[in-house]
Amino acid sequence: MWADSHCHVPWRDVPVEAFAQARAAGVGRFITVGTDAETSTAAIATASAHDDVWATVGLHPHEASRGLDGLPDPAIHPGVVVAIGECGLDYHYDHSPRDDQRPVFAEQVRWAHALGLTLVIHTREAWVDTFAILDDAGMPPRTVFHCFTGGEAEAEACLERGAYLSFSGIITFKAADDVRAAARACPLDRILVETDTPYLAPVPHRGRPNRPEMLPIVGAAVAAEKNVPIETVEAVTWENTARAFALPA
Question: Over 90: is that where the pLDDT of 120 sits?
Answer without folding.
Answer: yes
